[in-house]
Amino acid sequence: LLAVKEPIPYSGNPLDRMSGRRTDAAWLSERLGDPSSRFLPLWRMQVLVKQGHEPDLAWARRGVCECMTPDPGPVLLGEREGVTHFAVDLSTLSDPLDALGLGGEARFAEPHAVVAGLPLGSAGIVAQARGLLTWHARHRFCGTCGEPTRSADAGHVRRCPSCSAEHFPRTDPVVIMLPVRGDQCLLGRQPAFPKGMWSALAGFLEPGETIEEAVRREVAEESGVRVGAVRYRASQPWPFPASLMIGCLADAESEAIEVARDELEDARWFGRDELARALAGKHPEMFVPPPMAIAHHLIRSWLSDA
Ligand SMILES: [Zn+2]
User: What is the DSSP string of 56-107?
Assistant: First the structure.
């Protein structure tokens, strides 16, 4: 079923998440004090990367905890080959590179600017770390009673001391889909897209909605096209800040397009040959998103079905 052949960026996190150890205070304290443990610094949701020819994440040693934001403190990411990995938030520092003594060796970068060059697993760790730290930054107060909450269980829960509510990290599901009809598939253009770029339609799932229902609703709302069967293809963590892209192909049951101008600038059907050229970068007028985006893999997957 999974006809997506290439690994999708932000997937493939190599860490064992060690979820059974998150409540083990003695283990955590021992791992936090171990000189081999590694800490991924994030600053205002930018990630620390090495300068140089082979870009990768830059990990700090335990000393970095002296300048981290105390809430949430070190957030457990997981283990690999006996080495424990944490994420720390340095957002309250005005000059984090100076505080780390790292000027010249590393820099903070937006994930989008560097992910294409990172090893696959490293991008997966960025998705995990960014999702968790953003969640902490945005959930300082209890959604039930409004009092301040505290990070617990190695950064995987926030507890409210006032009403005892527990709050867990969020992932926001988004459906992204390629409606197909015979040898054609439907793509759209958002007004913010670079000139010439077309991509798959997408939208957030709403409460009380299945994936299939969300696909049908979004396609109908944005393009006026009616969709029947929906086939799941692949998913992608999307750390902006913490979405999960659920990639589907959808059988279109109508052809006429009525574009919702508040969401899309345009939508139209594309043939296989046209999209094969666009994917190869050889179409004179249009292009599709790069391999960083799951839309690229959905298009490639549909083309390989023929
Ligand atoms: Zn509360």
Answer: -BPPB-GGGGGGS-TTT-SEEEEEETTEEEEEEE-TT-S-HHHHHT-TTTEE
